[in-house]
């Protein structure tokens, strides 16, 4: 039975999901977009106060811009750096209102699971001829929707990693949930009252941690009883603070230099080699235990240890995932942080994102699994290629149309946290370019 009359379902109306819709529309295909939140890009609103490391020129998809142009939309300055809120108000929300997108966008509609009609994951006979079935929970209850293909762009921000070093919650972590935040809370805004004049520990060594530390230090300047502690699992800051002035993502480089200066000035207390296995209440406050190491008591903890994909909604489909990164097996060797501390990682598309379940593509941040190395621009290249593949244009699907920035992190040695090292060769892409894009 032909499935050509069925839509292509997109899970998630973030920047990559709506870019996928734009590319499908440009090829004459019919997308159907489901967003669990009340607005497009709902997850971005949770870090709307954070300024991105990449400028507008890296964050606007070409086909999406082409849809916006007839509406009178004016692109923001290419070299300006948006906050998450800017990304929503100046780009994503206007895109969601463009008629061809708006007519196909279903808000407050959570995709609970995806399967093949009449087939569980075990059944093989005529599997490829069965349409996808999406169970969608929306304002009018649950319903089933059929689709000829599925693009999962649901992201990972809703599923942060635990603080526990074993990959599961530390002992006591769930019991202390009311004093633990994950990701990048709005320390200088709506969460100010929670952290002002408190002892706050940030756990993590990525740029989400940097943003939290930066805001806490600014809060401490106004609220002097605020104490800022930082715990990392490593034993050295080498490579952690980034490429400094050599970093082609300039805002990221600047932030690393600022954190280095705050450490030198004693405004952040650093603890290294911290592998948390237990958190416990004490009369003095929360105490994090890491084997024999016990950290000073604190009032609040911010866990910025990255994110993981929620794969439950795809459990009845046949996936081919790398056991470490939880990304597609063909993509994993390109992004695995155990292998690629840096180095050249080529752009990728439909071929690397494919699964044994023909017609299923996981794209955007979720395609990287647990690897913390995603750039939004990479996601736009992914969906350009996927849309071409779904249209049968395999030449375009296999073509590379993306050149990613270099960063000074590669092949450098830092003598001091605020030192500027000479940029080495290579490091062309996503393996080095982690940012706040979700």
Walk me through what this model shows.
The protein is an alpha/beta fold. The protein folds into two domains: 3-158 and 307-398, FAD/NAD(P)-binding domain (3-Layer(bba) Sandwich), CATH 3.50.50; 173-303, FAD/NAD(P)-binding domain, CATH 3.50.50. 23% of the residues lie in helices and 16% in strands. The protein has eleven helices and 16 strands. Strands 3-2-1-7-16 form a five-stranded parallel beta sheet, with helices on one face. β13 (285-290) and β14 form a beta hairpin. It is globular and about 65 Å long. The two termini are 37 Å apart. This is Ferredoxin--NADP reductase. Keywords: Oxidoreductase. Its EC number is 1.18.1.2.
Mean pLDDT across residues: 88
Report low-confidence residues grouped into runs of 5 or more.
Answer: 407-438
How many DSSP E strands?
16
Tally the helices: 11
Any idea what the CATH superfamily of the largest domain is called? FAD/NAD(P)-binding domain
CATH topology of the largest domain: FAD/NAD(P)-binding domain
User: Which structural category fits the helices and strands?
Assistant: alpha/beta
Element-level helix/strand string: EHEHHHEEEEEEHEHEHEEEEEHHEHH
Describe the strand arrangement of the main beta sheet, using strand numbers. 3-2-1-7-16
Question: How many structurally independent domains?
Answer: 2
Radius of gyration: 22 Å
Text of the CATH class of the largest domain: Alpha Beta
**Global shape:** globular
Portion in helices: 10-25%
Instruction: Give the N-to-C terminal Cα separation.
Output: 37 Å
| Overall CATH architecture of the largest domain | 3-Layer(bba) Sandwich
Largest beta-sheet details? 5 strands, parallel
Strand content: 15-25%
GO molecular function: ferredoxin-NADP+ reductase activity; flavin adenine dinucleotide binding; monooxygenase activity
EC number: 1.18.1.2
Protein name: Ferredoxin--NADP reductase
Keywords: Oxidoreductase
